[in-house]
Structure formats: structure tokens, C-alpha cells
Design a protein that fits this description.
This protein is of the alpha/beta class. The protein has 16 helices and 12 strands. The protein has a 6-stranded mixed sheet with strand order 5-6-4-3-7-8, sandwiched between helices. A two-stranded antiparallel sheet has the order 1-2. Strands 9-10 form a two-stranded antiparallel sheet. A hairpin with a 2-residue loop joins strand 5 and strand 6. Helix 1 runs antiparallel to helix 4, helix 5 packs parallel to helix 8 and helix 10 runs antiparallel to helix 12. The radius of gyration is 25 Å and the shape is globular.
């Protein structure tokens, strides 16, 4: 199941539905207890709307607390910290909302008492089941070169919940017995079928650097027909890391790969989404924008708004608007510089604006103009684009869609301050372009809220 650009396993999807049912059951049970078993008050349009609002409130709280990232195995201490924070905060919000909006004090109290232990039991059971090796795909890498090592490192470093790495098959006899990330090179490619049987492999990852020599095509065909999945290394890397390894891709992979679907209907839907959110955002943020403008004016001399030329969709240049967060003489030397995480040119107010993303408020005007979208690759300056397109493969492909105020790279990667960081950001940008949809945009917006919330809470 693909949910908002992120693949969700069947077991995780089933658990989410089970958890939703449990939350609704506790809400209805609490209401019934408070009304002596009568639930007629919920079987109305307003009652159902009330239930849905409370359910979404709980799920939103869980999302912000990071409880819906089922890709990775977390440390037990982190698991309990997230679960405790999510359960307590959700219970408190439901109590405050149910009491304040509907006067359901008794029902709210019952929910506060019953919800945390029930949700904790469900989460513990899911964690126990999902940690079982039987729930994971058993992977064997065909090849032990840099591409295989790169994806193996992603699997091992991230403690993937979905994949169990069995080992590798080398392309030469000299590689037999090597250990990569603690996993062995079990033999050579001619021993493929034997290794698959012995280690109960259910997915073969083809990461052979030179496919013209020694590829066991007949063995791969027999295994594929017998039910063993055979996939290319970039696809597994994409599933695990949420990014595409552009530096080693062949153009044919991009040409024949699924995804990268666009069209008038999708573009129109995205545009309607952008305009609606931008109008609402500009109205709601107006008081905050006035306060920010005053703070910027009082702290340092210079304009309140920062204007700069950036490269947008199809390589067209446009002017981006932001609240100024740096000194006016930030580039007095006349040469463009990368913005760094702890940049000395950033003012005190500017540091807060950047961390809270409030400096991006004026870019909603860019969205209304149509030069930007709410979600997409962050636009770069022409000076840097000219440099990066010469050194980073497929760099210009990020201009296939409109740039965004936030993006997949922004919620998954740190602040990019050099060329290597730009390569990493492109990997995430290409993943977004491949999977982009309004549902994926919504996910990224929620992820942005979660990231900003956690940063400002000091996590």
C-alpha cells in the first residue's frame, strides 16, 4: 500500500485500521458510560462529526509525536517516550475539547482513564509482532560492490523493520568470506540457487556493477517463476530511504520506472490545493506577519522583505519573497554564499524565524502568483544551479515541478550547505517528483509541522 508517497506494509496498514477502531470504541464506550448506556446522541450528524473530529485529533497528535513511522525499529526507550507523550497529550486534548465544546465532563474523564492503557497494550503487541524476524523480507544482494554496500548500509543503519539482510553474493571468488556491515559474502553468483534455498531468501536484490559478465540469468528466471522476488538495487534503496540514488542511475531506469506521472488533472488539483491553502494561510497568519515585520524592522537596518532571484519550474527564473533573516550586508563581498545551519550572518530574530519557518510566510504570495507551490523542491539561485548541473547527475530534473515552500528533502534532511548536501537533497527531490500527489503533499505538510514542533521543543 502506498500512502502519500510512502509505502505502507499490509501489517502496518491493518494495525492503523485496528487502532482507529480501538480509539472510536473507547470514545463511544466513554460516551455510553456517561449516558447510562444510551448512545443516541452520537447517532446524529453533529454526533458523528464530533467523533470524527476527536479521532482526527488523536491521530494528529500521534503523528506529531512520531508514532506513525512504521519503517524503522526504534530503541525501547524511544518507543516508550513517544508512546507516553502521544497518549498523554491526546488524552488531554480530547478531555479539553470534549469538556469545552460539548460539556461532556464524565465521558471525557472516562476516556482519559481508559485510553492510555488500551492504546499502550495495542502498541506493545504490534511492536512485539513486527519485531519478529518472520515478519521481514529476507534479502540477498547479488553483487557486493558500492551500490550493494550503500543500500545495505541504509538497511542496517536505519534498523529497518521490513527487511532482514541475509548477505551477499560476490562477482568474483576473491570476495568470498568478506563481511560487509557484519553480513557475509556467502559465495559467488553461480551459487545463487543453493544460497537462496539454504537461507530461505524471498527477495533478491540485483546490484551487479557489470551485467555483461557472469549474470546468472537462467537461475534468476527459475527463482522468479518459483515465487522469489527479484528487484533492482535502486528500487530497494528507494523503499528503505525514501530517496533515489541519482549518482549511479542509468537514464533507462528513469525512463522505464513507475511513477513520474503528471498531467492536466493532477496539475489542476495541485493548483487548487495550493491557492486554497495560500489564501487561508495569508489570512490566518496576518497578525503574526505584522509582528514579525515589526521585529525585523526594530532589530537591524534594512528592508523587511528579502527578495532574491531563484530558478523555478522548467528553469524559469522568478523573485522569491521572505522576511529578512540576515544582516543587510550578508554578501558584501559580492559573491553568493551557501547559507549554513549556524550562519554568523543571521540576526537574532532571523535565527528564530528560520527555526520556526516564519520567514517563509511571504512565499505564500509566490504560491498565489503561481511561481511556487506549497510543496516541492526548494528553489536555488541561478549561480548555484549553473554549478550544480555540471557536477550532479540529473540535477536539472528537479525543475520538472514547481519549487515549494517546504519539501520532502526539508523534512528528511538537514540544512544543505555545500555540494554534497545538494546531491543528498536531490535524491529526496527526485523521490518526491516520482511520487508527487496531493496526498503526498498533505503528508509533507504534516511532517513539516512535526519537524518544526520537535525542533522548537528542543528534540
Amino acid at each position: 500500500m502506498n500512502l502519500g508517497g510512502v509505502r505502507l506494509r499490509g501489517s502496518a496498514a491493518a494495525y492503523v485500521l485496528l487502532e482507529d477502531a480501538a480509539i472510536l470504541t473507547v470514545l463511544v464506550g466513554a460516551f455510553a458510560f456517561a449516558h447510562f448506556g444510551r448512545v443516541e446522541g452520537l447517532v446524529t450528524l453533529s454526533g458523528l462529526a464530533q467523533l470524527l473530529a476527536l479521532l482526527l485529533m488523536v491521530k494528529g497528535t500521534f503523528f506529531v509525536c512520531g508514532l506513525y513511522d512504521f519503517r524503522l525499529l526504534t530503541a525501547r526507550s524511544e518507543f516508550w517516550t513517544k508512546l507516553t507523550a502521544g497518549a498523554v497529550l491526546a488524552a488531554a486534548l480530547v478531555w479539553a475539547t470534549w469538556v469545552g465544546a460539548a460539556g461532556e465532563g464524565i465521558a471525557a474523564a472516562v476516556f482519559v482513564v481508559a485510553f492510555p492503557p488500551i492504546i499502550a497494550l495495542l502498541r506493545v503487541l504490534h511492536e512485539w509482532v513486527s519485531r519478529s524476524p518472520r515478519m521481514r523480507h529476507r534479502l540477498l544482494f547479488l553483487g557486493a560492490g558500492p551500490p550493494a554496500r550503500r543500500t545495505a548500509r541504509e538497511i542496517l543503519d536505519s534498523r529497518s523493520r521490513e527487511f532482514e539482510l541475509v548477505g551477499f553474493l560476490g562477482e568474483s571468488e576473491e570476495e568470498r568470506g568478506w563481511r560487509i556491515g557484519g553480513r557475509p559474502v556467502l559465495g559467488v553468483m553461480s551459487e545463487l540457487e543453493q544460497v537462496v534455498r539454504e537461507h530461505q531468501v524471498d527477495r533478491i536484490v540485483v546490484a551487479v556493477q557489470d551485467r555483461r559478465v557472469g549474470m546468472p540469468l537462467e537461475a534468476l528466471l527459475r527463482l522468479r517463476i518459483s515465487g522469489v522476488e527479484v528487484v533492482e538495487e535502486p528500487r530497494v534503496h528507494e523503499e528503505i530511504a525514501g530517496k533515489i540514488p541519482v549518482e549511479d542511475l542509468r537514464p533507462s531506469w528513469l525512463i522505464f520506472s513507475d511513477g513520474f506521472s503528471q498531467g492536466r488533472v493532477r496539475d489542476l488539483t495541485k493548483r487548487m490545493f495550493d491557492v486554497t491553502i495560500a489564501v487561508i494561510g495569508l489570512v490566518l497568519s496576518a497578525p503574526i506577519a505584522l509582528a514579525v515585520a515589526l521585529a525585523v524592522r526594530l532589530e537591524s537596518p534594512g528592508p523587511i522583505l528579502f527578495r532574491q532571484t531563484r530558478v523555478g519550474a522548467a528553469g524559469r527564473e522568478f523573485t522569491i519573497f521572505k522576511f529578512r533573516s540576515m544582516r543587510e550586508d550578508a554578501e558584501a563581498a559580492g559573491k553568493p554564499q551557501w547559507a549554513a545551519k549556524n550562519d554568523s550572518r543571521v540576526t537574532r530574530i532571523g535565527g528564530f524565524l528560520r527555526q520556526s519557518r516564519l520567514d517563509e510566510i511571504p512565499q505564500m504570495w509566490n504560491v498565489l502568483q503561481g511561481t511556487m507551490s506549497f510543496v516541492g523542491p526548494r528553489p536555488e539561485r541561478p549561480f548555484f544551479v549553473d554549478q550544480l548541473r555540471e557536477t550532479i547527475p540529473f540535477y536539472d530534473q528537479r525543475h520538472a515541478v514547481k519549487p515549494g515552500i517546504t519539501g520532502w528533502a526539508q523534512v528528511r534532511f538537514r540544512y544543505g550547505s555545500d555540494e554534497s548536501d545538494q546531491t543528498e537533497k536531490l535524491r529526496y527531490d527526485m523521490y518526491y517528483i516520482k511520487h508527487y500527489s496531493v496526498l503526498f503533499d498533505l503528508r509533507i505538510l504534516f511532517e513539516t509541522v512535526r519537524v518544526v514542533f520537535q525542533k522548537n521543543m528542543g528534540r
